[in-house]
Design a protein that fits this description.
Helix 6 crosses helix 8 and helix 6 packs antiparallel against helix 9. By secondary structure, the chain is an alpha+beta fold. The relative contact order is 0.16. A hairpin with a 6-residue loop joins strand 5 and strand 6. It has a 7-stranded mixed sheet. It contains 9 helices and 12 strands. The protein starts with a strand and ends in a 10-residue tail after the last helix.
């Protein structure tokens, strides 16, 4: 079995945009480890579709009391609590790269009430939904009775919450997208700030061949740039003899606002392309970019890919 791969800049594949094939089970030998990491995560089921997948392909939604009202809010567990560096933590950032669930709820539109002194905390286990924006949007359209039936039984046993009061944001699909974009921005900014050259500038697809240990190509041009063909979702570029590496269209993944912030953060992001190296310290960033692409890639109304 073979899966279609969009290959850019490869004469053997017939030029830009030519469809090629690659054995299923990984995008290349370079990507096998990333895929293994994703497949090794514990299997969980989607609350909407019932599909069972490794939880990397799902979004975990925890439950926590609102800091002012005390009512339980369902929130995505998208903050990064672990360090980005090696297990020695020698060069980890001083602050978490993204907001904790406390800040997420404080950012939400809360009811007017006096602050509560109840301490905000995540439950140990959450509810999982397929990592697709359409799935999260569907959850917002579910009737209240059906929504209550999807609440995990363990939440009903938690004496800290009244499950009848659980709040789900109506704009959760765009809220999650914004959080994932912020997380990607912070990850890329962190890597670019390190002297280890985890990210290097690149002129074009041909220049990718001259780079050592490329893990992915970062497309930095606005999709409306004249004369430039933006890469589609799950695009690949052939690297040297046989392997392929992903091309992340950051104009589509980050959106214009966060892409502008990224370009302003470092000279590494001012060109059309950059290459992120295949290193142990870049694995989290590469996997998050894949997850972000999976979240938005199948959105039929999104014209940012064109």
């Amino acid at each position: 079995m073979a899966v279609p791969v969009h290959v850019h800049g490869s004469s053997e594949a017939g030029g830009r945009g030519q469809r090629a094939t690659q054995p299923a089970g990984g995008w290349s030998s370079d990507g096998d480890f990333k895929l293994a990491q994703a497949l090794a995560t514990p299997v969980r089921s989607c609350a909407i579709t019932g599909v069972h997948l490794p939880n990397y392909f799902l979004i975990n939604f925890g439950l926590a009391p609102h800091p002012k009202t005390g009512k339980p809010w369902q929130m995505p567990k998208l903050s990064i609590d672990q360090n980005l560096s090696s297990p020695s933590n020698a060069s980890s950032p001083q602050q978490p790269l993204d907001q904790t669930i406390t800040t997420l709820i404080q950012d939400a539109k809360d009811a007017k009430a006096e602050p509560t002194d109840r301490r905000l905390s995540q439950t140990v286990a959450g509810s999982y939904i397929l990592n697709q924006q359409s799935a999260t949007r569907l959850m917002s359209d579910v009737k209240r009775r059906s929504y209550m039936q999807m609440i995990p039984h363990r939440w009903k046993q938690d004496t800290r919450f009244k499950t009848n009061d659980v709040v789900w944001r109506e704009d959760m699909d765009s809220f999650v997208l914004d959080l994932m974009r912020k997380k990607a921005l912070r990850l890329l900014e962190y890597l670019s700030s390190k002297p280890a050259a985890y990210i290097v500038k690149c002129q074009d697809y041909a220049d990718v061949q001259a780079k050592h240990q490329p893990g992915a190509v970062l497309w930095l041009a606005a999709n409306s740039t004249p004369g430039e063909e933006p890469p589609p979702p799950f695009a690949m570029v052939k690297y040297r003899s046989a392997s392929h590496i992903p091309v992340f269209n950051l104009s589509a993944l980050l959106g214009s606002e966060y892409l502008a912030k990224l370009r302003d953060s470092s000279p590494l992001f001012t060109g059309t392309m950059a290459v992120i190296k295949k290193k142990r310290n870049t694995l989290m960033t590469l996997m998050h970019l894949w997850k972000l692409m999976g979240y938005v890639a199948l959105e039929p109304q999104r014209d940012v890919w064109r």
